[in-house]
Amino acid sequence: MSIQKKRFVFILLLVVLILLVPFLAMQxxxxxxxxxxxFIVAGVLLTGAxxxxxxxxxxxxxxxxxxxxxxxxxxxxLMVWAELAVGIFGTPFAGS
Length: 96
Known about the structure:
Elements: H1 3-28, H2 36-59, H3 63-86
Helix pairs in contact: 1-2, 2-3
């Protein structure tokens, strides 16, 4: 298996493992109530962020720039996730 395929599989497995958390929480508690659309959107966001982090790690050679770019990707992911979840910025994406 090539290194690119291994990275691809690793990213997808990591996304599945992260999405298992709310799925299992839904089985144990009525407090978590995700629809299929929630899982799809979260999967797309996590997969996109994973591939973007992989791209950054492969293309940026300077260690400081690499760290800054990965932090920027993670912060962007968290901001979009928070906006979609609770609408902290009041954009139309959150239904505000």
